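User: Can you predict the 3D structure for this chain?
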Amino acid sequence: NTIINAAFSEPMAPITGGASFTVTCTAPCTNPTGTVALDATNRIATFTLTPGSSLDPLTLYTATVTGAKSLATGLTLVSPYVWTFTTGVTPDTTLPRVLSTVPATTIPGPTTGVPTNTAITAVFTEEMAPATINGASFTLTGPGTTAVTGTVSYTVGAATATFTPTAALAANTTYTATITTAATDVAGNALAGNQAPLPAASNYVWTFTTAATVPPASVSVLSTNPVSGDTSVCTNAAINATFNVPSGLRMDPTTVNSATFTITGPAPALTPVTASSVVLDAATGRIATFTPQNALTPGVTYTATINGGADQAKAAVQSVRYEFEARMTAL
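Assistant: Here is the predicted structure, written as C-alpha cells:
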C-alpha cells in the first residue's frame, strides 16, 4: 500500500509526453497503475497507486524513470534511472512519528536561545509522502497566532521536513511550530504527533523562543571516510563526509545532494559517478553519505568534491576536494 518516490538533484519539468515514471513486475503479477505528480519544489516525483489498488505481497517490482527533463535547461536524463524493491507480506498500518526536531522539542517548552536565522526541521521515524508535507500541514506562528511566511520542503532519504522562514525571525519572541495529521507516510498513515502511546493520529506541536542572530560562521568538513589518499577503498563502499557546524545546528538537507557532493573518476578525467543517493544522517544531520549506483572500478583513482551546501542558519560550506583509490573487491 505504498507510494513510490524519485528525488531529483534539481527542479524538473512535468513527467509527461516523452518522459515516464513506471512500475512493473513479472507475470503472473500485473503491472500496477497509478498517477505521477511532482511536488511543489518540482524535485520529487511521486507514483501513486490507483485508489483501491495495492501492490502484491512478496513481489519484486522495478521502478523506472525515463526521459525526465530539467525545468531550467530542458536537458534530459542521460539514461533511464532504474531501481527495484520487494514488497512485504502485509500492508503498512504503523503511524509515523516525529523522531527529532530543530529547534529541539522540550517539555513543557519553549526551547530557549534559538537563532533568529534558523530553519525549522522535523525528522520522522519513516519516509513520508512528499506531497503531504506542505505549507498547510507544516506551519509556524508567532508571536501568538500570527502566521510566519516561509517555504516548506521535504527531503527523500533523510525523512526530513524543513520550514524555511522568508525573513529572519524576531528576537526574544516565542514561536509555535505545528505539523498536522495531514502529513502521512508513504502508505497513507497519518502522523501520530502526540508523544504518549496513543493509537490515534494527532498533530505534533512544539515551541521555542528566539535569541540574537548567530554570526554566519562558515561550515567546514571535519572528516571524510575514506580519508584523502586512501588506496584500499572497497569497490562497493559509500563515501561519507562529516561537517563541523559552528552554529550547532543541523545541515540544511535541501542543500546536500548530488549537485553539491560529487565523485568523479578516473583521475584526472571528470567522468561523474552516478549517485544512488546522497543523504544526511537522521541522528545528527551533519554526516553526508554518497552511495554510488554501481560498484567502483578497482585500481581507479576517484575524486570526491563537496562544493556548496549550508547549515540551517544559511552558513555556507567551505569547499573541499580529495582523492582515493578503489582497490579491494566488494564485500
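The mean pLDDT is 90. The chain is about 0% helix and 35% strand.
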